[in-house]
Amino acid sequence: ENAFNKQVMQNLQNDFRGAVDLEIKVIDRTALILDIFAQHAKTREGKLQVDLALHEYRKPRLTKMWTHLERQSGAGGVGLRGPGESQLEIDKRLLRDRIIVLKRKIDEVQKQRNLHRKGRENL
């Protein structure tokens, strides 16, 4: 049922984009919630957490973004390498790397916050 709802939502988004000449942003409930959180995030940790959530949200949607394009890049030389990475594979790798970096940054911020908290407790 959930996969069905996602497909219906995707079809509606595509229909609206094709039928309307205006610049209308069609988003689902999760995207709306993440957008609201992004607008209200004030602290460094909050901004990092929202950024991480947005990247995690985009991960399964990458395949839908590149279905109309099958670009290949990195063709090495004759017989040296395969045809190269598709744009989808490149984007997945970049997204995965960015998620790893964001998680590390969030861990650093949390460790620093805990260190400051312990320092205040010792006063």
UniProtKB/TrEMBL annotation:
<dbReference type="InterPro" id="IPR042108">
    <property type="entry name" value="GTPase_HflX_N_sf"/>
</dbReference>
<dbReference type="GO" id="GO:0043022">
    <property type="term" value="F:ribosome binding"/>
</dbReference>
<dbReference type="GO" id="GO:0005525">
    <property type="term" value="F:GTP binding"/>
</dbReference>
<dbReference type="Pfam" id="PF16360">
    <property type="entry name" value="GTP-bdg_M"/>
</dbReference>
<feature type="domain" description="GTP-binding protein middle">
    <location>
        <begin position="40"/>
        <end position="120"/>
    </location>
</feature>
<protein>
    <recommendedName>
        <fullName>GTP-binding protein middle domain-containing protein</fullName>
    </recommendedName>
</protein>
<dbReference type="InterPro" id="IPR032305">
    <property type="entry name" value="GTP-bd_M"/>
</dbReference>
<dbReference type="InterPro" id="IPR016496">
    <property type="entry name" value="GTPase_HflX"/>
</dbReference>
<dbReference type="GO" id="GO:0005737">
    <property type="term" value="C:cytoplasm"/>
</dbReference>
